[in-house]
Amino acid sequence: MTTWRTFGRRSSPVDPKHIAKLAVGPKHYPDDRFSDGEAVLSEIIVGDAFGADRIDYLLRDSHHAGVAYGRFDHQRLIDTLRILPRGDYGSREPALGIEEGGVHSAEALLLARYFMYTQVYFHPVRRAYDLHLKEFLQAWLPAGRFPTDLSQHLETTDNEVTSGLLEAARGSQSTGHESARRIAARQHFKVAYERNPNDLNLHPDPRKALYEATLEHFGSTRVRRDAYTEKGRALDFPVLLRDRGIAPSLRVSEALNRIPVVAVDYILVAPEIHEEVMEWIKGNREMTLRQAPREED
């Protein structure tokens, strides 16, 4: 059996299978058995609650984006992390948990993630550029996707994509020109409508109804919808109480139970028609929602 000690020996190179297991964790690698040590180590690296990857990207991205949303007391969090039995989860299998004194830091971590997603990662301008890049790659890449052959895949670096994008932006007849031009010239699609809870009084799915009406009126080449709703799943982990008992975090913290899911829904339109679409939606919104078909109809 390959152990961690043998990883440094030339006769026993690192097994890619071990790296893959730790990189994705048991949830995404169900076809292989994880030892207790592998499962905990994977949680430390990529775990949903306290993975080093999550802690790093929030702090790093908030720093480089110049915002405070992703900051939290990571030193306190790390100091109070413990390997604990799952206890009330019906298993004695070890899991990454936290001392009760670190619960507020854990709450701050998960709130920081929510704020970074809603204010930075899902900012409509960033999402618009994602949309343009995706559409460019679908047009520019052979068969509309990156090659799965390893050597070919590794040859397609950021340099090749950037070079191809610039070439396409300069040539009006080039494949993917329209999307490339919008990226290079910063003429990205803009928000004409986003989630408005008041519209639920008029239609059970107002965003879809308005999108379809806008699409019909202004055409598919200049209108896009960007919708995402996080799968509702509160993170639960063991907490070491001050009396040395262990309890699930969702019983210890009301805040963890109340962190909202990330949900965005934008109607994005070409900048040259942005004002026109805004005025059209403003004047036709109520009538459109009242007259739009409902699923139960």
- Rounded mean pLDDT is 89
Judged by helices, strands and strand pairing, the structural class is alpha+beta
H/E topology pattern: HHHHEEHHHHHEHEEEHHEH
Number of helices: 13
Q: What distance lies between the first and last C-alpha atoms, to the nearest angstrom?
A: 62 Å
- How much strand? 5-15%
Sketch the major β-sheet. 4 strands, mixed
Q: Radius of gyration, rounded?
A: 24 Å
- The residue fraction in helices comes out at 40-55%
Q: Write out the strand line-up for the largest beta sheet, numbering strands in chain order.
A: 1-2-5-6
Overall form = globular
The counted number of beta strands is 7
* Low-confidence residue ranges: 1-9
Characteristic terms for this protein:
297 residues; alpha+beta; 48% helix; globular; disordered N terminus
Write structural notes for this entry:
With 297 residues, this protein is α+β, with helices and mostly antiparallel strands. The chain has a domain at 122-187. It is 48% helix and 14% strand. The chain has helices at residues 16-24, 36-46, 52-65, 74-80, 103-121, 124-140, 150-155, 158-170, 177-184, 206-218, 249-252, 254-258, 274-291, and strands at residues 81-87, 91-99, 190-194, 223-229, 238-240, 246-248, 263-269. The strands form two sheets. Strands 1-2-5-6 form a four-stranded mixed β-sheet. The chain has a three-stranded antiparallel β-sheet with strand order 3-7-4. The N and C termini lie far apart (62 Å).
Gist?
This protein has helices spanning 16-24, 36-46, 52-65, 74-80, 103-121, 124-140, 150-155, 158-170, 177-184, 206-218, 249-252, 254-258, 274-291, and strands spanning 81-87, 91-99, 190-194, 223-229, 238-240, 246-248, 263-269. It is of the alpha+beta class. It has a domain at 122-187.
